[in-house]
């Protein structure tokens, strides 16, 4: 083991480094040397040879071994980007796309957005004819196929983090396999941290009967190559909780404090589930520092989740100051997508936010759910990168052995398939059940999706995209219900307003919230609250923000998240451009909110709910599946409980909560979707 790797030698802060050769003189290890120390470096020639000679190469290697940052650079060095061709590297997560692109551009000593660029939804940091290596989300690559079905500009496509089995990764794998038949010269690299490489190889192995003569003609092996990068992780000592933990946020905070008190130097990585509990943990730790300084002095507490401002994201990668201990409190993005140097202690709460879909009730939920044993092992592994480490699991060994599943279920088997179906249809793939999936989605979910798309007017009787609505919806990179709402608004003359609402719905939250400020922020919200509900409230906030001259002070005063509002402005501009491109009319309805509400209903009629007549606790039932739901406390309609509402999405904790809720007149439902609500008609009359 190189002793220089002992957690002391770090890269200078991300922004201070502009060229790869200038760093060696400052007491840091040169970038070149760091690159050569990564486990993947020994395999450089082997990887290049396999990619040269095989249509598909599967590379398995532990997190931190250098797959994401190094392999694309090797490809450039070997000439795969020559002659104006592009190399793509996909990631399931937006935050990972930005972070690795920024890292690789530093390593190469180039400006981000020039030779090395990235594209995520609503953000394209690439330059035509200059960018040779592009990091992008798997979802964005799928969208690129709509304009260029064979992805002709790419010479090599590396599908990274394949073990995550995100819904877009799975669709992408199926489509890439098809593309390979038409473009035998295209090279695929499937990279992952765990994966049973064999099943992935089986998927890419051509069926016996259908030989692939084209590949053989150009001298390429069709049998996928598998390469396993030997890591050099250190031992990690595992500690289980002795008894089940009731409040995992509190338990995580106590564990961090006790590690800090008892253990030697080394940074701590805590796995929580999302912004809410991460903010809560950060708050508790900060509170402890103020009241009880001696335990927690020297701690530098950093949250990590997508939706965090860029500058804050980058802090987690910056070196720890001498005498300080960094505590990174993260979602499962730090499980395999991002490598943080210097972590010696991992606190694993055993949970993550996962998507679940029930085709019977047609309800999709983001749920805090137990992780799999495979994930737990990955998380523990993060403690052993620089030296032997320790992992504290906040669940019992009995639970780990008997109640956690061995591996997670691919996302496609626990998601609503509406977006997936539209994308495949837009690419001309009609037999969706017969599509070559790495893992087949359930037929029930597929039928539900077809039904919803039919009632939204996106598919016709032959299950083909309707013209123009279906094709227009496919062009808008948003949830089809939101896209449908935008298209309806063009007809109703309120697209300016609806595009604002769509932009707000696509950022995480425009409100500042958190323990300790809840009362003040609720009061601030009342200044904007509209009787119609959250959607119209958003319009009021947007208007206020505009009138203030887009002032950050105004945001601060009103508990509005300035960073989120800036994002809303950006997304709004992009949506306007898309709307114009697909021929929608941009128009404002001024103050006729009835039109706005009808447009929202045109997209979200399937999410209609009625207040239970005898309910004293605000219980609603969905019209669709009679599921019990409640207005989320963050909604301006919380405790108002109007009789008829529609919601944008559901979250479930102890109950199912509707987020972003709007009042409706039930007769609009029949107007918006006569077919959909025909059967429930008697229901609608009282
Ligand atoms: P893999 O994809 O195999 O998990 P990566 O290529 O992401 O590995 O990481 C290789 C190494 O590059 C890491 O061990 C880390 O030292 C370094 N690294 C990656 N991203 C960053 C970053 N944003 N800042 C600093 N170092 C980084
Ligand atoms: Mg990686």
Automatic annotation (TrEMBL):
Pfam families for this protein: DEAD, HA2_C, Helicase_C, OB_NTP_bind, WHD_HA2
Q: Keywords in UniProt for this one?
A: ATP-binding, Helicase, Hydrolase, Nucleotide-binding
Residues covered by the Helicase ATP-binding domain: 48-213
Q: Which GO terms describe its molecular function?
A: ATP binding; hydrolase activity; RNA binding; RNA helicase activity
Domain Helicase C-terminal spans what residues?
Answer: 252-428
Q: Which InterPro entries match?
A: DEAD-box_helicase_OB_fold, DEAD/DEAH_box_helicase_dom, DNA/RNA_helicase_DEAH_CS, HA2_WH, Helicase-assoc_dom, Helicase_ATP-bd, Helicase_C-like, P-loop_NTPase
Q: Which reaction does it catalyse?
A: ATP + H2O = ADP + phosphate + H(+)
EC number in record: 3.6.4.13
User: What SMART domains does this protein's entry cite?
Assistant: DEXDc, HA2, HELICc
What the entry lists under PROSITE patterns is as follows:
DEAH_ATP_HELICASE (PS00690), HELICASE_ATP_BIND_1 (PS51192), HELICASE_CTER (PS51194)
Q: Which CDD domains match?
A: DEXHc_DHX35 (cd17980), SF2_C_RHA (cd18791)
SUPFAM superfamilies in the cross-refs: P-loop containing nucleoside triphosphate hydrolases
- PANTHER family in the record: ATP-DEPENDENT RNA HELICASE, ATP-DEPENDENT RNA HELICASE DHX35-RELATED
Name of protein: RNA helicase
């Amino acid at each position: 083991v190189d002793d220089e790797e002992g957690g002391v030698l770090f890269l200078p802060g991300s922004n201070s480094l502009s060229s790869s050769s200038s760093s060696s003189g400052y007491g840091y290890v040169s970038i070149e040397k760091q690159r050569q120390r990564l486990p993947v470096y020994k395999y450089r020639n082997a990887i290049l040879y396999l990619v040269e000679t095989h249509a598909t190469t599967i590379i398995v290697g532990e997190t931190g071994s250098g797959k994401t940052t190094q392999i694309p650079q090797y490809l450039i060095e070997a000439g795969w980007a020559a002659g104006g061709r592009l190399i793509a590297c996909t990631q399931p997560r937006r935050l990972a796309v930005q972070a690795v692109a920024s890292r690789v551009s530093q390593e190469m000593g180039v400006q981000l957005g020039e030779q090395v660029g990235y594209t995520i939804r609503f953000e394209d940091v690439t330059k035509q004819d200059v960018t040779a290596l592009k990091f992008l989300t798997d979802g964005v690559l799928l969208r690129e196929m709509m304009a260029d079905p064979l992805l002709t500009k790419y010479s090599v496509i590396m599908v990274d983090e394949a073990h995550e089995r995100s819904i877009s990764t799975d669709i992408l794998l199926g489509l890439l396999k098809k593309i390979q038949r038409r473009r035998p010269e295209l090279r695929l690299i499937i990279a992952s941290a765990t994966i049973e490489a064999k099943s992935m190889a089986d998927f890419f192995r051509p069926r016996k009967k259908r030989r692939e003569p084209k590949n053989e003609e150009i001298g390429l092996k069709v049998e996928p190559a598998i390469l396993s990068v030997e890591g050099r992780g250190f031992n990690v000592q595992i500690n289980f909780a002795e008894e089940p933990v009731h409040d995992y946020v509190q338990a995580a905070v106590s564990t961090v404090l006790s590690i800090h008190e008892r253990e030697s130097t080394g940074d701590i990585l805590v796995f929580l589930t999302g912004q809410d509990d991460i903010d809560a943990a950060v708050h508790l730790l900060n509170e402890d520092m103020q009241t009880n300084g001696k335990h927690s002095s020297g701690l530098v507490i950093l949250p990590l989740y997508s939706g965090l401002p860029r500058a804050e994201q980058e802090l987690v990668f910056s070196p720890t100051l001498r005498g300080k201990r960094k505590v990174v409190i993260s979602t499962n993005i730090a499980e395999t997508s991002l490598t943080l140097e210097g972590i010696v202690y991992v606190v694993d709460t055993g949970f993550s936010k996962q998507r679940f879909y029930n085709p019977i009730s047609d309800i999709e939920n983001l749920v805090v759910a137990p992780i799999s044993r495979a994930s737990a092992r990955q998380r523990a592994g993060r403690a052993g990168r620089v030296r032997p480490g320790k992992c504290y699991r906040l669940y019992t060994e009995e639970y780990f052995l008997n109640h956690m599943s061995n591996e997670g279920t691919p996302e496609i088997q626990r998601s609503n398939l509406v977006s997936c179906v539209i994308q495949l249809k837009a690419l001309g793939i009609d037999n969706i059940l017969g599509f070559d999936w790495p893992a087949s989605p359930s037929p029930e979910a597929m039928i539900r999706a077809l039904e919803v798309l039919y009632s939204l007017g996106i598919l016709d009787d032959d299950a083909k995209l309707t013209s123009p609505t279906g094709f227009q919806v496919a062009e808008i990179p948003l949830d089809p219900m939101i896209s449908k709402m935008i298209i309806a608004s063009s007809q109703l003359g309120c697209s300016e307003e609806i595009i604002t609402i769509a932009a707000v719905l696509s950022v995480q939250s425009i409100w500042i919230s958190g323990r300790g400020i809840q009362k003040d922020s609720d009061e601030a919200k009342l200044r904007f609250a509209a009787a119609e509900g959250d959607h119209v409230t958003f319009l009021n906030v947007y208007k206020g923000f505009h009138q203030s001259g887009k002032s950050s002070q105004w945001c601060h005063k009103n508990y509005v998240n300035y960073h989120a509002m800036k994002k809303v402005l950006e997304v709004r501009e992009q949506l306007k451009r898309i709307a114009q491109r697909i021929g929608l009319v941009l128009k404002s309805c001024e103050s006729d909110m009835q039109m706005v509400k009808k447009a929202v209903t045109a997209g979200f009629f399937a999410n209609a709910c009625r207040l239970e007549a005898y309910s004293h606790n605000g219980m609603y039932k969905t019209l669709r599946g009679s599921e019990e739901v409640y207005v989320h406390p963050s909604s301006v309609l919380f405790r108002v409980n109007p009789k008829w509402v529609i919601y944008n999405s559901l979250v479930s904790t102890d109950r199912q909560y509707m987020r972003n809720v709007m009042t409706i007149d039930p007769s609009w439902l029949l107007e918006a979707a006569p077919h959909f609500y025909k059967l429930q008609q008697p229901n609608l009359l009282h």
